Amino acid sequence: MQSHPYSWNYIPLMLQVLVAVGLGAWIATVSRFIGRHRDSKSKLAAYECGVPAEGDARGRFSVRFYMVAMLFILFDVEVVFMFPWAIIYRQLPAVTGSRFFGFWEMLVYLGFVLVGFFYIWKKGILDWGQDKTDL
What we know:
There is one protein chain. By secondary structure, the protein is mainly alpha-helical. 60% of the residues lie in helices and 0% in strands. The chain has two domains: 35 residues; 61 residues. The N and C termini lie far apart (65 Å).
């Protein structure tokens, strides 16, 4: 039995990436050569739901918008940590040597997440009924 380097395990992934990039480049190139391109003033004008654009596009957003975006990222990261933990939960005692280490570890993690959730709830960030400027 012949052993091969560990890096050979990444060959299928590299092939998939190369095929995806190559296919995307090929489709864009063929579209550029085959498709009609007749630019006109109306085609190049900005379009927003049929309403003519007014004012400056660099308007200010409420702080609440950014807070909700950060919360979205926070809870996405929570799922990213919980999913692999749930997959290997049954093998954790063999790795850690303790039967409940993985369980308590996730409870501590969820405790931190819940403390943050209750903080933003009490702060009123999730309440969109009234506009607060001093969060």
